[in-house]
């Protein structure tokens, strides 16, 4: 199978890329060149981002799809190929046809067996599986341990609409792996509270409060501190001690965090953990 990204080809080079050229056919043609159709003869040609092909090229593409015939640039010989075509696009080709930017006959020639892949926001059940897949790939490439994906992480990912689709998810996961702290992973999403730095004591909205001149009562502050400790424990799957523990994430001593867990009466049943274990009394290496 031969693949070609139609969006990456300069407009004046489409014909040469698809069909090839003869030596001397134009400036820079220093030797004969076989095009992608010849390379895929007897196999499959994958046209990615087919909606990017300019109108001036679409007629020539239609001819080779219908008749299997083409000529190289600068050559009179007609060549024949037998190629299976797979085309993909993120554009709505029906709208492109209505707007006159994509040939109707080419659209129907390509639209033999359409497979529509709905956006990620419409198949959110795939997000946990994809996120774990990308975590394994990115961590392997960077030679890093695979971070732990908590239930809270999954909820954050599921609550986001992903306008950039799967590519955005992959980029978000890669950034999270780069910035993860020894197993605790934070995803940076628009509107995600995990982007706000954890202040000592856990008041994540202090900066916003200062900017808006908001005054919190002591009870409200304690509620925010308690919520932030729970958030950190969930991020670290209940682990307190060590470089990948919640104390390190919050910038607190483990003993201080343990005291606050007791003070705020935080129980393991309140935490969304894959493994309901919260180590309060024993240091983990």
From TrEMBL:
Q: Which residues form a coiled coil?
A: none
Q: Which PANTHER family match?
A: PTS-DEPENDENT DIHYDROXYACETONE KINASE OPERON REGULATORY PROTEIN-RELATED (PTHR32071:SF117), TRANSCRIPTIONAL REGULATORY PROTEIN (PTHR32071)
The protein's name? RNA polymerase sigma54 interaction domain protein, associated with DNA-binding TOL2_12780
Q: Does the keyword Signal apply?
A: no
List the Pfam families hit by this protein, alphabetically: AAA_lid_14 (PF25601), Sigma54_activat (PF00158)
Which Gene Ontology MF annotations are present? ATP binding; DNA binding
User: PROSITE patterns, from UniProt?
Assistant: SIGMA54_INTERACT_2 (PS00676), SIGMA54_INTERACT_3 (PS00688), SIGMA54_INTERACT_4 (PS50045)
Q: What is the originating organism of this protein?
A: Desulfobacula toluolica (strain DSM 7467 / Tol2)
Sigma-54 factor interaction domain span: 1-178
CDD domains (alphabetical)? AAA
Keywords of this protein's UniProt record, alphabetized? ATP-binding, DNA-binding, Nucleotide-binding, Transcription, Transcription regulation
- SUPFAM superfamilies in UniProt: P-loop containing nucleoside triphosphate hydrolases
Q: Biological process GO annotation list? A: regulation of DNA-templated transcription
- Keyword Signal set for record: no
